[in-house]
Structures are given as C-alpha cells and as structure tokens.
Amino acid sequence: MAKPISMEVWNPSGKYRVVSTKSMPGARWIRLLTDNDCRLEICTDPKTILSVDDILALIGDRCDGIIGQLTEDWGEVLFSALKRAGGTAFSNMAVGYNNVDVEAANRNGIAVGNTPGVLTETTAELAASLTLSAARRIVEADQFMRAGLYEGWLPHLFVGNLLKGQTVGVIGAGRIGSAYARMMIEGFKMNLIYYDLYQATRLEKFVTAYGQFLKANGEQPVTWKRAATMEDVLREADVISLHPVLDKTTYHLINPERLAIMKKEAVLVNASRGPVIDELALVEHLKANPMFRVGLDVFEDEPYMKPGLADMKNAVVVPHIASASKWTREGMATLAALNVLACHLQSFRGQQLI
Ligand SMILES: NC(=O)C1=CN([C@@H]2O[C@H](COP(=O)(O)OP(=O)(O)OC[C@H]3O[C@@H](n4cnc5c(N)ncnc54)[C@H](O)[C@@H]3O)[C@@H](O)[C@H]2O)C=CC1
Ligand SMILES: O=C(O)C(=O)CO
C-alpha cells in the first residue's frame, strides 16, 4: 500500500470520518459535514490524479463516507476497501459517473451519488462558447493578432460560419443537451434536429412556442425535428454538439464512417466525455477537411491529446472546464457532501441538512 498522504483535518473530534480526495470550492460543503458530527479529512497532496493505491491509503482502516473525483477509478478494489473500513457512501463530484463501477458499489453495499443539475447551464454555456469560437475562428484570430500579423482589414480574413438560420444538431438531449439547444435556438435562431433514446418533450414544446412567437413578430420561425437515427443529425446539421452519457452505446459514437457523412464545413462540439469521439479518426478528418471545425472540452485519454490534435488550427481545445463556474463548482461540492450525509449517516434522520 502507498504511504499515507497529506491531509487537512476539520472537526477532529467528529464521530464520523468522511474523506474528500480533493479540496473543493466554497465553505458550505465543509460546514454541512462538520455541523453534522463529521471529522472531515481533505487530501492536500499536490498530485493531480490520485491512484487507486493513494485512495486506499486515504480510506485506511476506518472511513464512513468519501467524496471522489471523475479522474479516479472507483471499482471493486476501492469499494471493497471502503466496505471493510465501515463505509457505506460514496459521492462523485460530477454528474458523469463513467469512472464508477456501480455494480461493484452495489455488491459492497455502498450507495453512490453524483451531482446533476447544478452544472447544466454552466456546461451548456461552455458548449455554446466552443461553438462560437470554432464557427468564428476566435482562437486562430487571437493568435494571429498576438503574433503581430494583422496588417489591416481584408475581405477573406478569418471568414467563418454564420449560425443564424442554420441547423443545430444535438446528440443526447438530456439536461445539458436541452439547455444548449435552447441557447442556440433562442440566441441565434437556429433550427433544431436532435437524437436521443427518449423524446425531449419540453424542448420540443419550447421550440414550437418560440417559433410561434417569432412568427407573430414577423420573423422566420424556428423549427424542430426528432431524428430517427443519429446519422440523420450528422447529415443535416451545420453544428453538432454531443451531450450523451458515456457508456457502451456511446463509445466512439463519432467514428470515421460518421465523420464522413457530416457536412464538410460543419462544426462539431464535445463537452460530454472524450471517448464519445474516436479522436485519432477526428485528427485525420480535421487534416483532410480544413473547413471542418471542432470545439473540444474533453479528450479520449485525458489529460493527453491524441498525436496531431494540438497542431490543428481548426480545433479549439480547452482542459475539461465546462462546469468551471464558481456557483456550479460550489454547488457540486455541496451536493457531494449532502449525498454522503443523506446516503450514509442515517443518524442524521430528521435533521435539517441544508
Ligand atoms: N465536460 C464537462 O465538464 C461535463 C460533462 N458532462 C457530461 O455530460 C453528460 C450528460 O449530462 P446530463 O445532460 O446532465 O445528463 P442526462 O442524463 O440529463 O442526459 C444524457 C442524455 O443522453 C441520452 N443518451 C444515452 N445514451 C444515448 C445514446 N446511445 N444515444 C443518444 N443519446 C443517449 C440520455 O437518454 C439522456 O437524455 C454526463 O454524463 C457527463 O458525462 C456533464 C457535466 C460537465
Ligand atoms: O460533472 C461532470 O460530469 C464533469 O465532467 C465535471 O464537470
């Protein structure tokens, strides 16, 4: 087992030992735990991604509940160690839980929580930012400016794509996909085509009502369509944003065949999970189609990019920051603490947790 790693301790005399593998924004989550008789231990090791061995050392011989991160591998080894340490609750500080083996948690009697909802708008806003940056070549133009290359206005300088009146395609129209769709429809009057396993009834109603509003005001109404296949979205849309969960059905959902049917000047955005795109195939597609642009928040082998991606001018890349607003990150931390309290510490029954 790895040597014990550095910890910051809150409320040392608390009855329940709760561990957080990272420091998280805000003070509310700390207060919630310490006010509810928890001894909170926050790992302060500077290592960005903790290994399974590091986390085993954090769990130790006694741990009632633990808050972990999406970069960590939560499987049988950790859940059985948590069970042996007397723990019954784990919360991921994320909505995505593809890093968590829920069946292993169930086998070991560990309740699992995630933090949906508080990051919906923040993540959708970042997807919208990536869409605009890619469509209007913001990063390329910024680099050009800083390199002192600007000699004056030119008719062909950094010509990009107009969004208004174009079609936005959303794959995975859940909380974030629907919020993104609304931003693009309301903000840029785009038409919608979406693909999801389930019907996005509220989104459809919104687009219908907004279309009627535009028409009543003498403007071109926006439209929506639920696609029968993902291929329909890829063929028809000018902008495609990916928002599904990552599981077996969405792994490499964007592959060479599907890239080939997209419009040559399409914009593809991914703020879901990296492995939803076959990143090597994407690099080849970007090389062969300079007018095809992508905005990526997530990568197949984070923190790395596949060879060649960093050289592509038609790619905008940011380091998994889609949920990085202060309000959201504090909300995620608060939800994670509540998950541990609500799932595990039954003795708090009847207490006001918020
Ligand atoms: N980049 C970032 O920082 C963030 C990334 N995420 C990612 O976004 C994902 C979505 O989050 P939410 O919208 O809150 O979840 P959600 O559960 O509301 O939406 C996911 C949608 O994907 C759909 N879906 C599942 N399998 C599909 C398939 N094979 N084809 C098409 N659609 C499919 C579901 O039916 C659902 O509507 C998370 O699982 C997470 O991985 C979430 C937050 C921040
Ligand atoms: O919540 C998630 O799933 C993330 O990716 C973190 O923002």
Q: What is the topology?
A:
Elements: E1 7-10, E2 16-20, H1 28-35, E3 38-43, H2 52-59, E4 65-68, H3 76-84, E5 89-92, H4 102-107, E6 111-113, H5 120-135, H6 138-146, E7 167-171, H7 175-188, E8 191-195, H8 201-216, E9 224-226, H9 230-236, E10 239-242, H10 256-261, E11 267-270, H11 279-288, E12 293-296, E13 315-317, H12 326-344
Parallel strand pairs: 2-3, 2-4, 4-5, 5-6, 7-8, 7-10, 8-9, 10-11, 11-12, 12-13
Antiparallel strand pairs: 1-3
Bound molecules: 1,4-dihydronicotinamide adenine dinucleotide and 3-hydroxypyruvic acid.
Organism: Urochloa decumbens
InterPro entries: D-isomer_2-hydroxyacid_DH (IPR050223), D-isomer_2_OHA_DH_cat_dom (IPR006139), D-isomer_DH_CS1 (IPR029752), D-isomer_DH_NAD-bd (IPR006140), NAD(P)-bd_dom_sf (IPR036291)
Family: Belongs to the D-isomer specific 2-hydroxyacid dehydrogenase family.
